[in-house]
Amino acid sequence: MSSNDRLDSRLLGMIGVILLGGLLGILNSTMAAVATGTLATAFDTSLSTIGWTSTGFLLAVTATIPFTTWAVDRYGGKRLWLVGLVLFLAGSLAAGLAWNVGSLIAFRVLQGFGAGLLDPLVLILLARAAGPHRAGRVMGLMGVVLSLGPVLGPIAGGAVLDSLSWRWMFLLSVPVGAVAFLLALRMIPADSPAGSPQGRLDVLGLALLGPGFAAVVLALSQAAEQGAFSAWQALLPLGAGVVLMIGYGLRAGRVRAPLIDLRLFVNRGFTASVTIMGLGGMAVYASLFVLPLYYQQAHGHGVLAAGLLMAPVGLGGAIAMPLAGRLSDRIGARGLAVGGAVVAGLSALSFTQIGAGTSEVWPVVAALTVGLGMGCFSAPTMGSLYRTLPPSIVAQGSSVLYMLNQLGAALGVAVVTLILQTSGDVITGMHGVYWFAVAMIVIVLAAIPLLPGKPQAQAVPEELARTS
């Protein structure tokens, strides 16, 4: 392996610092999700009202991502990263000191604005630092955070709630974030603002795309809460979101430098990559959503024990992604992705045969192999995506990937919730959820042949590269 392919110590240090900052948002959002009942009791309010502490955070993240696409080149990646950390830490400290439910929701929104800067910047900064020849292994390392974050969050949240006040779920982010800030000052190289390739901020495009996408995510969240896609609480934001997104699409075709160039989707490798990651996210969140319910209702475990038993999903991904990502830099993504999708699909299929009396060993093993399979197709897919993008449109590609992942997660939770609410019991519901997961993985298998071939084969339309 040549010296150009190795990850030197300085790059590894930068990767570690970036992943530490990226982990903050994932952990905080998933920790807060398990505290809904505790927070409702503490503020003497309804579960639907307290649910806005999570929904407000999610919507703020989603609405901020398109701005990050433009701002990273306008102000520089390091500067924007530090601003994102400051916003997130300010929101964390304020949320930990919140005096009523309204202030908590407002401060969670502030956290979301910070996370909306940090989350896509994780992808952008790592992709730029790695370059196309090391994209797979760097995305594999990032996959450790993506795999473990959603699993460790509920475990950490349960541990905090068992022994400390709910306020510490937010306050603990402050010292960790302060360390991440100081390390970022030292480890992330300064990059002079180059001026955004899009020129001046497309304010109208931002006003259409950010709120439009957030409205669609809100519609899916409301569908999950109401237990029906036909509820007016879901249809109203869905209609508004679709109108705004159509408006953005029409505008993007007319302006010279749109916020996100829809011609990205002309490249079939890019389209296949973001589709696979979105569908994979739906399948993962299906497992993360239904497994705790299975362990709690079918086996009588508490929140913390159910979280620990769910951990093999994330552990499998954390093991597989660095290895698969590294290997994909040498042999390409397709073979690894096919193997991973087959393993994940068969493992998901095995869950349809598990019942209330099944020994817990079998769902734990199946969860581990689901994670291993997902990791084997996720990291190579992400690496192949960044091998198809010239440096000038890495920020746009990263934002599209992250937004579609958000959409996939929200849609997955909404569908899973509907399946569970229309099932007679948790076992029937779990079987239905995993049939849904199997269907998503079958579509992933169908899309894998569209991924780029070996790393040397990179194909981005020249016109898109020039105009971006």
From TrEMBL:
The chain crosses the membrane at residues 12-43, 49-68, 80-99, 105-126, 138-160, 166-189, 201-224, 230-250, 270-295, 301-324, 336-355, 361-379, 400-420, 432-451. The keyword Membrane applies. Keywords: Cell membrane, Membrane, Transmembrane, Transmembrane helix, Transport. It comes from the Bacteria. It holds the Pfam family MFS_1. Coiled coil: none annotated. It is a multi-pass membrane protein. Residues 14-456 form the Major facilitator superfamily (MFS) profile domain. It is found in: Cell membrane. Belongs to the major facilitator superfamily. EmrB family. NCBIfam families: efflux_EmrB. This is DHA2 family efflux MFS transporter permease subunit. It comes from Nonomuraea marmarensis.
